[in-house]
Write a structure and sequence with these properties.
Elements: H1 25-39, H2 45-73, H3 75-83, H4 85-91, E1 102-106, E2 111-116, H5 125-128, H6 133-136, H7 138-146, H8 148-154, E3 164-169, E4 175-179, H9 191-195, H10 200-204
Helix pairs in contact: 2-3, 3-4, 7-8
This protein binds fe (iii) ion.
């Protein structure tokens, strides 16, 4: 991929690039097309937002959720995933643009991992789809490092004091996926049922997994 010549390598990262890189040719074309289609009344910007939301929150993160569910269900897969995420994910075809080199971070009762890209919006696309707007925002990018517990509280995640919060800074060369803890009450669930518990934010480390019905 391109972009390895600068320090962080985001020259082609994404359309809402907050640092001062000029828009690429493709980005300019996309924007020109969007405004033309809206102007001609051919698309509704709200419908477009909804489509993007589909990829951000529904289609995209399901790949990651399947990986997490399999890791919960299959200890051998989990240990391979933690040792060499890139090769293990490649076996499943879950490697590609914006996810060439992957590291999986395991949450434990004493360690909570959280992922940010302090310089822009590096994100594991093959596993999570498109990054949410807040992930790309300046406040998240700076506060995740300065005050991770405050950010987690804003997301409704209150961790006990004894849990260590580790913040990982993504780059174009290295992307992270958080492996959340398997929740109590999920014993005996199928891999599909387990995957349904895994939220996108749990895999970024800003959220938790859903509570199984058996534990409610
Ligand atoms: Fe980045």
């Amino acid at each position: 991929m391109s972009g390895h010549d600068d320090h962080h390598g985001h020259a082609t990262d994404d359309p809402s690039h907050p640092h001062n890189a000029p828009l690429s040719d493709v980005q300019l074309r996309v924007r020109a097309l969007e405004s033309l289609l809206v102007e001609k009344g051919l698309i509704d910007p709200a419908a477009l937002d909804e489509l993007i939301d589909q990829y951000e929150t529904k289609v995209g993160p399901r790949n990651g959720a399947q990986v997490v569910a399999r890791a919960w269900a299959d200890p051998d897969f989990k240990s391979r995933l933690l040792q060499n995420a890139t090769d293990t994910l490649a076996e499943l075809g879950l490697i590609g643009r914006q996810g060439e080199n992957m590291v999986v971070l395991e949450n434990t009762p004493t360690i909570h991992n959280m992922v940010v890209c302090t310089l822009c919006s590096c994100y594991p696309w093959p596993l999570l789809g498109l990054p949410p707007v807040w992930y790309k925002s300046a406040p998240y990018r700076s506060r995740a490092v300065i005050d991770p517990r405050g950010v987690l509280r804003d997301f409704g995640v209150n961790l006990p004091e004894e849990v260590e919060v580790r913040v990982w800074d993504s780059t174009a060369d290295l992307r992270y996926l958080v492996l959340p803890m398997r929740p109590d009450g999920s014993e005996g669930m199928s891999q599909e049922e387990l995957a349904a518990l895994v939220t996108r934010d749990a895999m970024i480390g800003t959220g938790v997994v859903k509570v199984p019905e058996a534990a409610q």
